[in-house]
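Show me any protein, fold above all:
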Amino acid sequence: MFTPTNCFTCTLMAITLGLMTCNKGEVDEKHLAHKNQEAEASSAMFKSHIEFLGINPTDFENNTIVLPQDNSPFLTLSDYGFFKGPLQYLIPSDGVLPYTLNSELFSDYAYKARFVWMPQGSAAQYRKDEVLHFPLGTVLIKNFYYPLDMRNPHGERRLIETRLLVNTHSGWENYPYLWNEDQTDAEYYPFGKFTNVSWVDKNGGKQHVNYMQPQQGQCKSCHIVDDNVMPIGPKVRNLNGVFDYGEQGKHNQLVYWQQLGYLEGFNPNEIQPRNAVWNDSSEGLDERARAYLDINCGHCHNPKGPGNTTGFYLDALTMDPKELGVCKVPVAAGRGSGNLSYDIVPGNPAKSIIHYRMASDEIDIMMPEIGRSVVHYEGLDLIASWIATMEESSCAE
C-alpha cells in the first residue's frame, strides 16, 4: 500500500493543524505577510488598471450604498452604489473593500475583481478553518472579466458578469448580473448565458472561449454547506496574503481588515493557516497542489459539502490519504471513471480518475461539473506532477 512521503505527510498535518509550512518556528505578523505572487498580482491589477485609465478615484463623488428591503435583487448593478464614477472602472465607494485569494477557482481563464461590503459598525468574526462569520447585510461582490491582452492584464478589459452574495435574514442569496455590450452597467440576469470571449494570451497567441454564466440556481450546487448556501473563498487560509491598497500601502489582508474594524477575534501573533499560491514555483509542490484542490474541488468534496457521500475529500483539512483518494475505489463515478479503478494511483497520473476527469471537457465526465467549459491545462499539469511524485503503488491489497 501507499505510504506518504515525509514532506507529503508534513503538508497534510501542516494544513490540518494550521501550520504554514513544513518548517518549525514562531509565526508573527511578518510571517503573515508572506510573499504571495498571485494575490499581489491581483491587487496590483486593481491598482494598475486605475493608473492605466489615468484617473484619480478621489475625483468621483462617493455613492450611498443601498440594499433591497425585500430580498429581491435590484435590476441593475449600479442601483446598489458599490462603485463610484463610471461603473466599469470598478472604483469602490467608501466602505467597499477590495480583496483577493491566495489561489483562485479556475473559471475559463477569467480574471476576478473581488470586493466586500459590511454595514457600518459591523464586522466579520474570525473562524480559523471555516468561512468567516459575516454580519447580516454583508455583500460579497465578484466581477468576472478578461483583459483584452493578458500580456498587459491591467490594460483594457471586458467585464462579463458580476455575482453578488448577500447575507439576508433568510440566509445567503446570490444575484447574478450580466454586463451590457457598452460596459456601462450590468443587468440582473438569472437565466444563465454563454458569451463568446476572445483575448491575446501571455505568449501572444489568440484565444477564444464560450464563457458560461451559470443560472442563478446552479450556484447552489457549489455554495452549499450542511444544506445552507454559504460563501466559499473568504477563509483565513485564503485571505492570509498581501494586498496592495494603493496609497494605503501593501498589507496582509487579515491584519488590514482587523485594523479597519472589518474583522474581530483575529490574533496576528498566533499561527494562522495559509493556502499556498498554486502557480508559485517557489512554494512546495504538495502545498500548491493541495491549495489548488482546496479552492477548485474542496467546496464540494468535503464532509459537509455536496460531494460528502463520495468519501473523497479534497479540502485543505483532510489528512487521511485514503480520504484524499489515494488508492480509493470511487463510490459512483459511472462514465466519469474512464474504466479506471482508483481516484488516485500514486506515481501514475494516467491511471488516476481525478486526472482523467480534470482532463475532460465533456459534461458527464469533467470535474468540476460546472464553472468551466475548457480544460485548465496548467492546473492539470500541477496535479499530474503531484501524483507522479508520490511513492509508486499499484494499490493492490
